Amino acid sequence: MKLSPLTQDLSVFNKLDFQYPPIGVKFSFFRPEGIEQLAMDKNLSLCEMVKEAQLTGKPFYFSAENNETCVGKILLGMTDMAPFAESGQIGVRLGIFKEARNNYNLYKYVHKMEKGVVNYVVFSTIDKLSYDPDVLVITANPHQTEIVLRAVTYSTGEMYTSLVTPVMGCSWFLIYPFKTGKVNYLMPSLVHGPKGRQLYADDTLIISIPHQWLPTVTKNLQEMKIDLPSHIDKEHYYAEFEQILSDLEKESQNP
Description:
By secondary structure, the protein is of the alpha+beta class. Helices cover about 35% and strands about 15% of the residues.
């Protein structure tokens, strides 16, 4: 099936000079037309597929036919979790949880797709993006992250919210934003799988923007100052702040 075409210009993200390009992710019930399937000999986890798209620069889709080395198919509703895993046994043996009950308790927070709803997941860098993404996944350093998150709140006043669990981290930057319509950000180095796979540098953050927020964020990135004067150094910060207070004090004399 042909995916709905891209209807907005996302090139504004290029000016942030990310080390790795943002990835547009699409969840699909039908097999996408005009996009190649991930090679059958690839053995990747779901979170590694984002990095694969960034490194190759080629759009591809993943399906239940492909290999997946972690819990991706479980989170996508493509397969069931083994009873021993669902009972919480794995996290104990990994040293992440004291007892199986603690691991089991965590599952109530993790977002999953309903069984049979998603058969294909499409990944593409924004320069090759031909479809309307469900979620835009951005990997960034702290400076770049501040800019993207400021573009969320610039015209809305929305607060920054970060949600993640020590395992099943891909749920929080792929499925959670899609199902809730909320922007999320997290440090992959805080999550067991990405940390162990050394997926990104330790100071990398992942920001996930669901489709509902993309028009707002892109418009704000086009309008707002990207680099704020106060962020140059401490001297600039105090000088600007003191000048603003002085100006407002004078202006408020005749409101």
